[in-house]
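Known limitations

Structure tokens in this collection are predictions and should be treated as such. Users comparing against experimental data should check residue numbering before alignment. To illustrate the layout, the record for DUF4374 domain-containing protein is reproduced below. The input appears on top and the generated tokens appear beneath it.
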Amino acid sequence: MKRVYLNFKAFAVVTLAMGLMTACSTDDSADAGGEEPEEEASRWITVAAARMGDNPGDGNGGTLIYALDSEEAKDPTISIEPFDNGFIVPSNRTARLQASEDGTTIFNISYAGDTGGNYTKYNVEGGQDFVQTGSEISIAPYVGSAPRWIKLFDGDQTGAAVYVSTENQFNDNGTPEDETDDFYERTEATMGIVTLDLVNSQILNFQEHSVPLSAEEEAQGYYISRIDMPTLNAAGDKLYIGARLSKVDPETGERDSNGETLASKSIVLDYPSLMNPVVITSGVGLGNTNGYRSINAFEYNGAVYQANQGDPQGSHILRIGSNNQYDDSYEFNLDEALGVEEAYILAWRPAANGKAVLAYRHAGSAEGVAGAQGFFALVDLEARTAQQITEIPYDPDFYLFQYQGFAVNGDEIYVTQAPVGQNGNIYVVNTATGEVTKGAELVNVEGSHFIGAF
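Generated tokens:
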């Protein structure tokens, strides 16, 4: 008989909030002394759910969260209903959520609307009980009401939010109307970045910088059009910010979506001063590195590993070395590793052992009610291998484009699986052994979906 965990409220987004990776790992425990690996300590897992707005899977109807402990999350006899009994997270559209490393705190910055840009944090107390703690602060004056932000991996101390604004620049020799070939000069891209004290709810620093490309790239109409996912390096003295490139036609000044896909790039800044921006370029991957809703780059073993998207050769995981440059000796192509074509990394997260769960789609994905079907894979950063997790059931309507996060507890990674508008389950992947556990049932509502674990 199922135990039904009901608390009261409406509107739910299931955010398996699990916190960032714990510092201690147990993957070297058994071989030498014959001891069994100790079990992971129980912790809160917050599930996030996105309610439908106008169309199935758009997630624009609001975000709800619901917490259960990790043992309950592994129990398939438990059923939770975040959409009927979850805590409504303040946000006009899908909230941008983060969790503390121990899973006891949820951080939120509202996205769009009257409260857009407002930072709040909540103590996790189980079920729908999330108690606001500390003061609220707005970062909208610095980065707008729809900020792209992330919690840095510095012990839950700091958040960073970014934006980029662009302006086409023209010379005085002509205009589009008189069909002068050389009227367009370049596009000026101005980056803004703000750091936020998550503990004391105050602004730490704000800087704006011009972020030009090479003269040759700019002459062809390329510019940085979107940035996201700041990531702190191992030394704690640099931030890497992922970038998307766009293009205009230099002859017309109009948007050009048919241009060549350039090499992947990132912006490197001094930290914590946020000064001296430099654009670095990969010799391995093509396309964008800004990601979408989920963290796109992680520090592991002294380097930062970063996913790219829109690569015609299939998504890669790229590596930035301790010298703050791309390490082109590291080649990890998802098409080759998974045996698919046009792999596209939607979201991913490593455990402390360098093994990760990765959400992706590919050219063979079925087209569902909200978009292309998604899959999960188990990835090994050191061995550069990837394998689809077949123990998780798949459906054409299993939509992962808006997936935000994964709950990490030691070697275990918690994910949510439910097609749009259908029930599903929590699944727990032991990254050390590859074992997959089917956990608590997730009760869905029409047109809605679950957006992950933190």
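For this record: The first strand starts at residue 3 and ends at 5. The radius of gyration is 22 Å. Please report discrepancies through the issue tracker.
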